[in-house]
Amino acid sequence: MPTLLHVDTSVFPGExxxxxxxxxxxxxxxEAQHPNGTVIYRDLAAEPLPHLDGLAAAAxxxxxxxxxxxxxxxFALRETxxxxxxxxxxxxxxxPMYNFTIPSTLKxxxxxxxxxxxxxxxxxxxxxxxxxxxxxSRGGGYGPGTPRESFEFVTNYLGKALGDGxxxxxxxxxxxxxxxxxxxxxxDLVELSDxxxxxxxxxxxxxxxxxxxxxxx
Length: 217
What we know:
By secondary structure, this protein is α/β, with parallel strands linked by helices. Helices cover 41% and strands 12% of the residues. Helix 5 (155-165) links the parallel strand 4 and strand 5. It has helices spanning 18-33, 54-59, 69-87, 104-113, 155-165, 190-216, and strands spanning 3-8, 38-43, 90-94, 131-135, 169-173. The protein contains six helices and five strands; from the N terminus they run βαβααβαβαβα. The relative contact order is 0.17. The protein has a five-stranded parallel β-sheet with strand order 2-1-3-4-5, sandwiched between helices. Pfam families: Flavodoxin_2. InterPro entries: Flavodoxin_fold, Flavoprotein-like_sf, FMN-dep_NADH:Q_OxRdtase_AzoR1, NADH:quinone_OxRdtase_FMN_depd.
């Protein structure tokens, strides 16, 4: 049975988080199609990872039989996280925009799983071609042609890190204007916000069904 790696990063719980709400929609549909499948779940807000340190970074460039005991111990977490990514048939990531970019917890995860010569840095990595659905929610509007287009460092960064770096086949689901109902200054954007939210949930369901069907074949 297929394996789904589900990573959430929002600091807000449940329905209070646009990204968690949409990743939950994807996962619900995925599990309906694969009730006996494996789901590896990481909530990086509830259980944040330590930042990559020098020992763990250096260990990633050393052959396993050349690592010191200290490097081997430091590399253990990277081995676990990279193994989860390599095991996954589909990757699902909630990536809300915080201060124009990704949560620091997600950056920490990336720093651990990007291992040159293994998951990255090779023409054919151990994660090449794995489908990844990224729910990139944001409180405002940052799409092409908007005043804050140049402030968008979520999809452009993750497209490179996940796609070009890890070789994943990345698809973005983008619920925008999520603060419209709570910010009086955005009152005239509520209708657009609701439409964006509905489309994000619809897209999540559609992608989950399509990927579930692919791995059921």
